[in-house]
TrEMBL record:
InterPro entries: Epimerase_deHydtase, NAD(P)-bd_dom_sf, NAD(P)_dehydrat-like
Species whose genome carries this gene: Elasticomyces elasticus
Domain NAD-dependent epimerase/dehydratase: 6-194
Domain of life: Eukaryota
Keywords: Oxidoreductase
Stored PANTHER family: NAD DEPENDENT EPIMERASE/DEHYDRATASE (PTHR10366), STEROL-4-ALPHA-CARBOXYLATE 3-DEHYDROGENASE, DECARBOXYLATING (PTHR10366:SF564)
UniProt-recorded name of the protein: NAD-dependent epimerase/dehydratase domain-containing protein
Gene3D superfamilies: NAD(P)-binding Rossmann-like Domain (3.40.50.720)
Length: 328
């Protein structure tokens, strides 16, 4: 498959950029947007992702598509949830699928989803039910009021996943679809040039407590190293992985991540920085239990997920580098 052309959307994001790098390392030719030119990288402009046929030009003559582009938490208010967060996630996904219908060279579309697409918001963030989330987990589109932006984000992922599977049933396309469901992605953000960039998104869940901040609510015990989340997207192109398969990215087995362990990890690896106050190491992130079984993903891909300790070291070492402190 190396040498085939992959259209990647969202390649300028935390996960997307790492996917782009890994695809280039694997020998693929890429088509992306808004990135510096490289020998195996070409560009296409898609000015309005929600316009009908927005991706029609972008998908021409490609062999694969990896669709990561989707709205993220950006301070949306309740009146914006549906229009700014949920609908763009759904329409952006179905739009690229419909554009791909007429391109016979396309073999597979890989779509970045999330574990929050596979279990109710309540089960993941509020109640400890003992339910097991795995590759086959699915839920119906949520109904009723949305309490906060993260619940709206979760709803966007559920609805995009369900819309994709409805598309596959209705249209029966010539290409296959594989879904990638990372948990909370932790790892050095290669696009970050400031400490604010390093703390952006899910990285702050691990790093925030190291910098002395408390998380205002318990966080599900679900994390995955950025390297592994990106590698799952590359593995998803393998034709041995069948149409409709979900690949779930999560570390720590069924026990998952204990977020507060970052304090001990940092004390052990960076005692000087803690002693000098460079790393206050005094915050609190409480953990909420969710049972996630990724054994099928490990079997299909051969990936052994990196530990939470490796995730913490990745973001802390980057933080120290950005502020000019030796990581010792």
């Amino acid at each position: 498959m190396a040498g085939n052309t992959v259209l990647i959307t969202g390649g300028n994001g935390h996960v997307g950029f790492k996917v782009l790098v890994k695809l280039l390392e694997a020998g693929y030719t890429l088509r992306a947007a808004a990135l510096d030119p490289k020998s195996k990288l070409s560009f296409v402009i898609v000015p309005d992702l929600l316009a009908p046929g927005a991706y029609d030009e972008a998908v021409k003559d490609v062999d694969y598509i990896i669709h990561l582009a989707s709205p993220i938490l950006s301070g949306f208010t309740e009146d914006q949830f549906e229009i700014q967060l949920i609908q763009p996630a759904v329409k952006g996904t179905t739009g690229i699928l419909y554009s791909a219908l007429s391109i016979l060279s396309i073999k597979r579309v890989v779509i970045t989803s999330s574990i929050v697409a596979q279990m109710s918001f309540s089960d993941i963030f509020m109640e400890e039910t003992g339910k097991v989330l795995n590759e086959a987990s699915r839920i119906s589109d949520p109904t009723g009021p949305v309490a906060n932006e993260f619940e709206a984000y979760s709803n966007s992922k559920v609805r995009a996943l369900n819309a994709t599977e409805q598309f596959m049933t209705k249209e029966k396309p010539h290409f296959s679809v594989v879904h990638v469901h990372p948990s909370f992605v932790i790892g050095a953000n290669e696009l970050a040039t400031t400490v604010d960039g390093d703390q952006h998104g899910t990285n702050k869940t691990a790093l925030g407590q190291v910098l002395g901040f408390d998380m205002p609510f318990p966080v599900p015990n679900a994390s995955v190293h950025l390297d592994d989340a990106a590698e799952l997207h590359v593995k998803a192109l393998d034709p041995k992985i069948h149409n409709g398969q979900s690949l779930v990215g999560n570390s720590g087995g069924r026990e998952g991540t204990t977020w507060g362990n970052a304090i001990e990890i940092v004390q052990r690896h960076f005692p000087k920085a803690v002693k000098n106050g460079v790393l206050p190491n005094s915050g609190v992130t409480l953990t909420k239990k969710v049972v996630i079984d990724v054994s099928e993903t490990e079997k299909l891909t051969g990936i052994k997920f990196k530990s939470y300790e490796e995730q913490v070291l990745s973001v802390v070492e980057q933080y120290l580098g950005l502020i000019g402190v030796e990581a010792a």
